[in-house]
Design a protein that fits this description.
The chain is α/β, with parallel strands linked by helices. The chain contains 11 helices and 8 strands. Keywords: Arginine metabolism, Hydrolase, Manganese, Metal-binding.
Length: about 300
């Protein structure tokens, strides 16, 4: 995988989150040497710096959404930047920011796939299903809504970001590590038939079997997008997130997950989101995230 060209794009905002601090995520990943560690793997890595967008006004929700117009502005910036990198034949890595930004990145990826007749597969590594809507959201925080928005359920400004609605069908998603789903959300993900591998399934089948199923059908015509919410990881090893949920994958399970994705050779775009240095201890969560991203780009113990 040494001939890859990777572009890092910072999106420093916590506009969709319920806690402040994810806006500092991109810098924490840089401090943990993401660029240098990938370069050491023989990858051509360019850091494009940070996108610009509105400051977080920290207001209550209106009509079921918090900060909708600012969320739209940030996602439009992400959409254009990610689409631009894909058009250059580069692999974009969006450094979040909160998970609402995946609306922009995956909408761009989906457009790229349509234009190049590629199948899209999205691995959504997360403690949460992120399938809330204005009608059922407990908080109005849009970082709990990106998958629903991408599937066409949400405000027009977000569901039509790429010109056509929906950006993706629910069947492109494989959600892994899920262990917190709001009551209303449970019905929605069931009706949409989103493929969810929750922690019970990981416990019963093991990470290896789960990843084999999640990656089934990925081939040379597949664009594999990984949306890596750092709260996917157990908070015992990754305290630096705003929405911790106990009982996530441990270090070894997470490494296996990343290595099996790398083994496909199909990784073509990546989000790293919800890293919140304000809750972290000595940047340990950022260092762990960088460690796992190295594995995603093919670092393994032995030559296999």
């Amino acid at each position: 995988m040494g001939n890859q060209a990777v572009s890092l794009i910072g999106a420093p905002t916590d506009i969709g989150a319920g806690h402040r601090g994810a806006s500092m995520g991109p810098e924490a990943l840089r401090v943990a040497n993401l660029q240098a560690r990938l370069k050491a793997r023989g990858i051509d890595v360019v850091d494009r710096g940070n996108l610009q967008g509105p400051l977080n006004p920290w207001e209550p929700p209106r009509e079921g959404y918090r900060h909708l117009s600012a969320v739209v502005d940030w996602n439009r910036a992400v959409y254009e930047a990610i689409y631009g990198e894909l058009s250059l034949g580069r692999l974009p890595v969006m450094l979040g920011g909160d998970h609402c930004l995946a609306i922009g990145s995956i909408t761009a990826v989906a457009r790229h796939c349509r234009e190049h007749h590629k199948k899209l597969r999205v691995l959504w590594l997360d403690a949460h299903a992120d399938f809330n809507t204005a009608q059922i959201t407990p908080s109005g925080n849009i970082h709990g809504m990106p998958v629903a928005c991408l599937c066409g359920m949400g405000p027009e400004e977000l569901t039509t970001l790429g010109g056509s609605k929906p950006a993706t069908a629910p069947d492109v998603f494989r959600q892994i590590g899920i262990r917190s789903v709001d009551e209303g959300e449970k019905r929605l993900v069931r009706e949409a038939r989103v493929s969810i591998f929750d922690m019970r399934q990981i416990d019963e089948s093991g990470m290896k079997r789960v990843m084999e199923e999640a990656l089934e059908g990925v081939d040379a015509d597949t664009h594999l997008h990984v949306s890596f919410d750092v709260d996917f990881l157990d908070p015992a090893i990754a305290p630096g997130v705003g929405t911790t949920v106990r009982g996530g994958p441990n270090y070894r399970e997470a490494q296996l997950c990343m290595e099996m994705i790398a083994d496909t050779g199909r990784l073509a775009s990546l989000d790293i989101v919800e890293l919140n240095p304000a809750f972290d201890k000595r940047n340990q969560t950022a260092k762990l995230a960088v460690d796992l991203v190295e594995s995603l780009f093919g670092k393994s113990t032995l030559i296999r």
